[in-house]
Amino acid sequence: MISKSFLQRLGREHGTPLFVVDHDALRRNYREFKKYLPRVQAYFAVKANPLPEIVRTFYQEGASFDVASMPEFNIVYENIQGMSPKARQDWIWDKIIYANPNKPVETLEELNQYKPLVTFDNAEELVKISKHAPQAGVALRLKVANTGAMVELSSKFGAAPGEAVDLILLADKLGLTCEGLSFHVGSQTTNFENYVQALALCSSIFNEARDRGYAKMNLVDIGGGFPARYDDTVKPFRELARVINHELGRLFPKDIQVLAEPGRFLVANAGYTVSKVIGKAVRDGKPSYYINDGVYHTYSGVIFDHCKYPVRAFKRGATRLSAVYGPTCDALDVISMAENLPELNRDDLVYSELIGAYSHASSTHFNGFPPAKVVHVNM
Ligand SMILES: Cc1ncc(COP(=O)(O)O)c(C=O)c1O
Known about the structure:
Blueprint: H1 4-14, E1 18-22, H2 23-36, E2 40-45, H3 52-61, E3 64-67, H4 70-77, H5 85-95, E4 96-98, H6 105-111, E5 117-120, H7 123-132, E6 137-141, E7 149-151, H8 164-173, E8 177-182, E9 187-189, H9 193-211, E10 219-221, H10 237-251, E11 257-260, H11 264-267, E12 271-283, E13 286-291, H12 301-304, E14 312-313, E15 319-325, E16 334-342, E17 349-352, E18 373-377
Parallel strand pairs: 1-18, 2-3, 2-11, 3-4, 4-5, 5-6, 6-8, 8-10, 10-11, 13-15
Antiparallel strand pairs: 1-12, 7-9, 12-13, 12-17, 14-17, 15-16
Helix pairs in contact: 2-3, 9-10
The protein binds pyridoxal-5'-phosphate (PLP).
């Protein structure tokens, strides 16, 4: 954890808005994931924070990667460029999953040379893959309950359980190998039951596929969703891991490979933002601060991720309920209407913690304001 005083110093030294990444935290998160889920191969979901330095740190830790676009694939690929073609090919097969169920033809054509593992969730996509990336291995993404997740994904992705084995058999008919099943219980899932139900569903689909003559599946991809501890109501990771380990042991023989695609869990607590007050007003009787970072920038998770990031002051003093706005001309650019803050002045610095996931990653250039400068510490 970076101390408040260090963060303040970084803000002064580098200027604001500043996005700080603590690589010790990245390593700690990855090791915690591996410690409590030893059977699970962890594929960092690059979309959560695609900074090449972050990918590099996870690469050095031995992580695998979930990519969802060609640019994300290339960020990972940079790390393995020096390998021999054979070693690189093996590495890609072992350590990358292209986990976007819908892929442009151009992407499939580019990916094909790498013989990648890719996900799909419908017949149309399978036909496309068989034509444009016939060397790919495929994994069927299932629609599973996302109950209570902060970010719901099942309305957009996943095959209905009733059509799963038909799709697996279609893949086989098209000359593709369906290596296994994947799912996503929704991001920031604190309802562990989602994993329990999804694993039971996978087990029943494995059995149905075998009964209907298809026995080549050997992997289960349990996706992402592992919650970051934004507050104390989120149970420790080891408690979720205990539930998952129990279900894996009960339902899947040891020779079934298990993978996961953690994004948020690995990066959320490694990111901080420091910004400064650029204007102030009293609106409807409430102190209101305009800062030089907002929801079009590092606080983009307020909109896209349905996440809240408390804005804190370095300064001490009696607090009042205040509003905090971003710097753009759009009235949507509201970070919070209710922060307890001391009286702030122009140029005072403020900060937020736990803002490493789906934040800088979805920052825009809206209104001409560029994304925050990035500083890496403990790299
Ligand atoms: C296919 C897939 N895998 C993994 C992730 C990462 O999820 P999380 O950040 O909840 O771990 C996502 C997030 O949207 C996803 O769509």
